[in-house]
Amino acid sequence: MAQFQLSQGDLRAYYLGVLVCLGGFLFGYDTGVVGGSITLPSYKNSFGFADSSKSTATKVASLTVGLQQCGSFVGCFLMIPLGRYIGRRLSMQLCSAIFVIGAGIQTADTHDLASFYAGRIIAGLGVGGASVLVPLYASEMSPKHLRGRVGSGYQFLFTWGIFLSSWVNYAVNKHVSPATPRQWQIPISVQIIPGALLGLGMFTVPESARWLAKQDRRDEAWKALTWIRGSDGPEVQEEMDEINATIKAEKEISRGSLRVELKSKVTLYRLGLSFAIMLAQVCTGANALAYFSPQFFALVVGDGTESLLVTGIFGAVKIVSCGLFILFLSERIGRRFAFTGGALGMAACLLCVAIVHKLLPPPGHGQVTGSGIAVVALIYLAIAIYNISWGPLGWIYIAEVLSPRTRDIGVSIALGTQWTFNIVWSVATPYMIAKIGWATFLMFAIVDVCSAIFSWFCVRETMGKSLEDMEKEFNSESATLTAQIEQDDRANGSAVSSSYDAGKA
To answer: Which CATH entry fits the domain spanning 8-206: 3.40.50.800, 1.10.1740.10, 3.40.50.450, 1.20.1250.20?
Structure first.
């Protein structure tokens, strides 16, 4: 039980993690709630397409999902200049405000689909921006022994967002009259609460210490670091010295020019690694399973109420597996092992699903067979494996491996990839299910094998290492210079350390 005896610094780190990872909850809830809300009779009546053809309803659904994801794609790149120049905390509050405005527009009963679509785009800007800022802020502020656990909270709250959205939709569909617009307004409006909590909660935590140090606001950086660590002892002083030495080294190497740094092979490799990890994460098949789980389960158990039942259990499996990972595995198994093993495990499960479905297809008419039950169990196992590997770790790893000067750019590129392929899979998956059926699972299994090979040969271990230690891990030129700067500071008496003593006095 020693691991649960928390220091003040650990408690503050967990609080910060839960707060910023509300961005993941927003992503999950917004993803899950809208699909159900726009199918409600009250929504169709409000926006005037209750008597329209099925193709009209399909078009509305496609635009509703696609426009939000397009807004998120733009939002993640807008955060490069904003997060760099006004800071992580203020940018997060701005994303919160944008999301709340977008959710408010969606909630209004305007009887105009164009305004609802505009709300989707605006809310997407907030979600996309937060998706970049959460891993940045969490990685920069979390202590190295908790960084994986804190950063994994994004995926955990994402799964909770999807899970709760399905129950909110179910409740209003059952208990609120379809004759009133409140039936669809309630589930849409609920997301305003966590959106507002994210922005207001950021007033209770400091700005990123590493961002402040990059702006030469060293006294503020020291206060922020001592707050999140719950201490101003020698270990914290040493960490602050490391942060400042690394930032100084990178500035000297790149001569203050980001363009010079981007020409470095090591920098390009780290950017490519961050990009590849997020590309692999979004192409494992887990996102497609999440977005279209009823259709996938209909493939293996046939149409009927059974597919809805197993879809509900599917959401619970994601929450439980991700929670177990955060509590017991996040700081025990290495990133390289988790990525490689996770991809191989998912590949094995999905390959078996494809084979069984091809040889013993479901009879349909809601009839469940032994092979159908086995296939459902394999899909549950695949998504559980995803949520103890690629799901939670992808979000934190993309920030861990990047240098201080390229962290915001690299995370934005990685998350831009994630949003791009979310759009691709949201469009392509329904057609894949309809046209190739069982081969959909085979395709994702092949992708997972490729991801495992990539992880084994390319992923560098980051567990238990500070962000400054990554310079040594990647044999960065700044690592040698950083060591020299730290040695000179210790020999001559660091100006930064003097400011610590002044602060404590």
So the answer is: 1.20.1250.20
Asked if 95 and 75 touch (Cβ cutoff 8 Å), the reply is: yes
Domain with CATH 1.20.1250.20 in the chain: 8-206, 254-493
The pair of three-digit structure tokens given for residue 58, joined into one six-digit string: 């399909």
Residue pLDDT, tens place only, 441-497: 999 999 999 999 999 999 988 898 888 788 777 766 655 666 666 666 666 654 444
What DSSP string runs through 114-166? Answer: HHHHHHHHHHHHHHHHHHHHHHHHHHHHS-TTTHHHHHTHHHHHHHHHHHHHH
In the prediction, which pLDDT does 407 show? 87
Count of CA atoms in the C-beta half-sphere (13 A) of 78: 20
Q: Residue 3 and residue 326: Cα distance in Å, rounded?
A: 12
Residue corresponding to tokens 């059974």 = 306
DSSP string, 56-72: HHHHHHHHHHHHHHHHH
* Count of residues in the chain: 505
Asked if residues 128 and 72 have their Cβ atoms less than 8 Å apart, the reply is yes
Residue 261 pLDDT class (50, 70, 90 cuts): low
pTM to 2 decimal places: 0.84
Q: How many CB atoms lie within 10 A of CB 276?
A: 18
The CA–CA distances, whole Å, from 5 to 8, 138, 242 equal 10, 21, 27
Of 291, 321, 297, 295, residue with least CA distance to 310: 297
Domain 254-493 has CATH 1.20.1250.20: yes
pLDDT at 505: 44
